[in-house]
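Sorry to interrupt, but I need a hand with the structure work. Could you write out one complete protein record for me, on any chain you like? Could you add the entry underneath, on a fresh line?
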Amino acid sequence: MNQFIHLTSLNHSCIIKVDRVPEIVHWGARIAQIDADLLLSTERPISQARLDVDIPLSLCPELGSGHFNAPGIEGHRNGNDWAPVFHTTQVEANDHQAVFTLQDDIAKLELTIEVLLDNDTDVLQKRMTVRNLGTQPYTLSKLSSTLTLPHHANELMTFHGRWCQEFQSQRQPLVHGGFMQENRRGRTSHENFPGLFVGSKGFSEQQGNVWGFHLGWSGNHQLRADVKSDGRRFVQAGELLLAGEVQLAEDATYQTPWLYGVYSNQGLNGISDRFHSFVRQSILRFPTQKPRPVHLNTWEGIYFDHNPDYIMKMASEAADMGVERFIIDDGWFIGRDHERAALGDWYLDEKKYPNGLEPVIDHVNQLGMEFGLWVEPEMVSQDSNLFRAHPDWVLGLSGYQQPSGRWQYVLDLQNPECFQYLFDRLDDLLTRYNICYLKWDMNRELVQPGHQGKAAVRGQTQALYRLLDALTHAHPTVEIESCSSGGGRIDFEILKRTHRFWASDCNDALERQTIQRGMSYFFPPEVMGAHIGPGECHSTNRRHSINMRGVTALGGHMGVELDPVKETAEEKQAFAHYIKLHKQHRHLLHSGRTFRIDSANQDQYIYGVAGRNEENQEEVLITVCQLAMPEYALPSPLRISHLDANARYQLTIVEMPKTSFQLMKQAPKWLDKTLELNGDNLREVGITLPILDPESALIVHLKKI
């Protein structure tokens, strides 16, 4: 066949050579045209003491053709057909999409590979489908998407974490060998977010060639980056299948999750900018186009102690602070007085709410706020009416004693009766009450995830998607938050069905700065739930000023997580201040281009957003967060490269920690003034910052004039 397929977008090219199998020869900056001699110029030598033919690093590497690292496909047919070798039989392509059909007549398998390059955002998408052409069942063990990288991609950035500490990044060289991450927790997980970056050595927020990857899948996954002994390198990602999880009958198919990739020659900022644009254009679907409402969630305020009169007082205080959506968290349904009982019994507790939920909702609505409710539909408590009636609805393996997690078990969503019960209960709640928002929680991993004795993480994940799809179809105006003990289920695929993530159960502002930074590489601010918590964080017992808490929450989808009735007038006034500040810049925050600035000081994190406000004026909002004790007595100048060098800007401080003034005998005289500076002044010289206390932050606002 021997031809090139050239996919293009506004800024990038993906050139795929098609011979026996398709392989990428270039994915990066846009190429104007393919020269006639490119075929010859990309021909590889064959070294001594190797196989006697060239082995392509294809879009689905094959063990059977001599790829010794990680094959893209693994499986067998009763012990046979375990090393398929495919041949391309058909290619359909246009400027932005290619579909390759490959076949192995001996193993009786057909492989379809889809590659899309989004024109507007430069995001590359890839998925594969395998079909069993034989009459005997085929056991599929693995089908993962592979994307190749150039030799100068030699540094790897990955993510690790745990509950209350998600999206922690780490780096390592990618020179020999490789990296592999496996997640068997049955959800996207706190520990192993399915995303990574590979780039030129030392790539930073603003500089370097970088390739970013994310697997859009909410179940088990495997993610790896490998360097072959000949120097070629690749990233591979796919669903991690448990033993016997996929058995393909004659003519049956298996389709991989989408693998999303993007290239940037402007460091990590170029990656996040493109991912954010893609999410906004192709993934996220808000029910209505309106400003993202400021939340108050009752959890850290009252936990399980529900009193309707008191909750209405909380709502009144919340409205006075500027809250726009009031959410009752866990504890509203029958028997839910503590964490060990009642999950699954999704009926209002009439002992706690003798007059029903309507008076509370009416009160919330009369105050001008929307009403939201917490649910955890996938779970069941052993001490519940549902479990007593249907113990067989638990996802598990017969004969084993499955360990509980947070004193609860997982329901088998593939059980049709269980699925229908959950849909009916949620549908009834959303029909009966004026609920605009569901906080959908999922608070444990899957252990022994069996359906009718067989491994069932894939089936459980797909059933969850179907349940969410059915509910959103029945109630298209309801927003849903994906929460899973905080950030345990955050990915592009679940976001197609939801509208917000709870980034972490940790509300500690210092920890949140790191968590939200990691999340910001993939997801735009308007889906990142970020709340102001009480002065003493419930998950760390650390105390932070309202400045640090308010500024940290301001940059996401803002809310508050506390009991406003118990807060002092001074504290409530401070909450109102940050809510007002958030609303003032909300349009910019939730539509602009997010960026981060390389700082000379590791103890400082500088980030911002640039775009247009509601009056269509160009604006920039920059946050300087002093994470720890400054390394030097004086801060380094803030140079802002994201500006038009030839334009003129007004610059003001819109937030400054008052306690930091005590650190200076004399503060910079411009702090209480409006400056006018040219873009080249701000880019090359910058502005001198005040000295900041550890764990405090300031915000600079610029407007183009």
